[in-house]
Amino acid sequence: MTKSAYKINLLPFLLGSVFSFLFILVPSAQAEFTITAIPPRLILSGKPGETISTQLKVRNDSEAAQYYTIAVEDFVVYDKIGTPVPVTTSSNNRWSLASWIVSPGAIPVDSKATQIVNIKIKVPQTALPGGHFAMLTYMPNADIKPGELKKTASIIGQRVGTLIYFTVAGPVTEKLNITNFSIPKFVEKGPVDMTGTVESLSDVHVSPAGNVTIYNPLNTKVAEVPVSIGNVFPESERDFTATWPQKWGWGRYKANLDLVYGTTGAIVSATVSFWLFPIRLVIYVLIAVISVLTAIILLNKRSKRHQELLEKEVTLLKEELEKFEQPQK
After folding, report:
1. Which of 174, 189, 201, 311 sees the fewest Cβ atoms within 10 Å?
2. Contact criterion met (CB below 8 Å) for 17 and 84
C-alpha cells in the first residue's frame, strides 16, 4: 500500500492480528478493565453486489458493566513487522473496506459477559477484485463525551478490536518476491541466525511459509528449518527471521529458502552460502599441540645435552683412573 494514497491518523495505534486481548486501564476508578475482541482476525470473501452478514463478539471481563463505542476504519501496513495503522480513507484508497461495513455505533456489555455484534458488509457493484481491509474497534467509556476526555488526564482510553480481511471475487494477481535473505558469511559457533525480507506485489494479502534447507560441505542435506512469515499485505514488505540450532560445523554450508504462497501454491526461492567453522577453537588446539611438541623437543634436547655431559665426565674419570693405575718409575 502506498503512503501517498492515505492520510495517516495522528493518534498512535498498535493492533497486531495475533493479539487475542489487550488491557484497558482507567486509573481514575483505580480499576483494571479487560476487553477481549473475538475473533482478533476475520477473513471473509464475497462477490460484487453481495451483502455478507456475520457476527463478532466482545467480552467485558471487568467487575462493572461497560458501554463501548464501535469504530470502523481502514488500515494500512507501513512497517516491516506487519503493524496495522488506521487511516482516513480517500477516493483513491484501492484497499478500502470501512465504507462497506454497517455496524452498531455503541453497545452495552454487562460485567463478565460476552456481547454479540452483528455487522453487514455491502459489496459495491464496482468493487475491484482482491483484498480490502478494515478494523472494527471497541473503546470503553462511551458515555463520556469527547470534551470531557480532553479535560481530564485521569482517563486513558485504548481500543481493541478485530482486523477484517475481505476478498472480492475475481481475477487477482498473487506475486511475492524475496528481496533479502542473508546469513553471516562466517559463523564460528552456532546457533546460526537467518534474516530476510519479502515484498508483496499481490492484490490480496498472502501468508508465505516454507523451509530453509541446509546442506553441508559434501552437499548432503543436514537440516530443515521452518519459516512462517505471517500476513504480507498488498504493496508492502515484511521481515522474517529463522534460526538453525546447530552448534558446530566444519566448512562451507549452503542454505536454500523455499516459500509457498497464494491460492495456487506458487513458490519463491533464494540461496546463500556461509562458513560454519570454529576457527578460534582450531587455533587454540594448534597452539596447545605446538606447545606440547615444543616442550617435548626442549626436554629431549636437554636430556641429550645432559647425557653428553655425563659421558664426558665418565671419559675424564677413566683417563684419571688410567693415569693413577700406571706404575710409577
Report:
1. 311
2. yes
User: Which amino acid would we find at residue 47?
Assistant: K
186-187 and 266-276 strand pairing: parallel
| CATH number of the domain residue 232 falls in | 2.60.40.10
Q: Are residues 292 and 210 part of one domain?
A: no
Q: Closest by alpha carbon to 216, among 274, 294, 172?
A: 274
Count of beta carbons in the 10 Å neighbourhood of residue 59: 16
Does 196 lie in the same domain as 154? Answer: no
Looking at residue 236, the DSSP 8-state letter turns out to be: -
Task: Identify the residue whose cell numbers are 452478514.
Answer: 53
Q: Which three cell numbers stand for residue 143?
A: 458515555
Percentage above 90 pLDDT, the chain = 59
What domain range includes position 310? 280-329
Confidence label for 324 from pLDDT (cuts 50, 70 and 90): low
Q: Are 234 and 131 in contact (CB under 8 A)?
A: yes
The string of DSSP letters for 265-286 reads TEEEEEEEEEEE--HHHHHHHH
- On whether both 43 and 108 belong to a single domain, the answer is yes
Same domain, 162 and 32: yes
Pair 76, 23 in one domain: yes
Residue 323 to residues 48, 126, 267, 314, 317: CA-CA distances in angstroms? 128, 130, 101, 14, 10
- Report strand pairing: 113-122 vs 106-109: unpaired
Pairwise CA distance, residues 282 & 310, whole Å: 42
Domain count, the chain: 3
Q: What is the average pLDDT value for the chain, to the nearest integer?
A: 82
Host H or E run for residue 105: none
pTM of the model: 0.72
> Among 191, 238, 230, which residue's Cα sits nearest to residue 207?
230
Based on the fold, state whether residues 41 and 135 are members of the same structural domain: yes
**Region at 30 (left for phi over 0; alpha for psi -120 to 50; beta for the rest):** left
Place of cell 559434501: 218
Residue 163 · residue 20 · CB < 8 Å: no
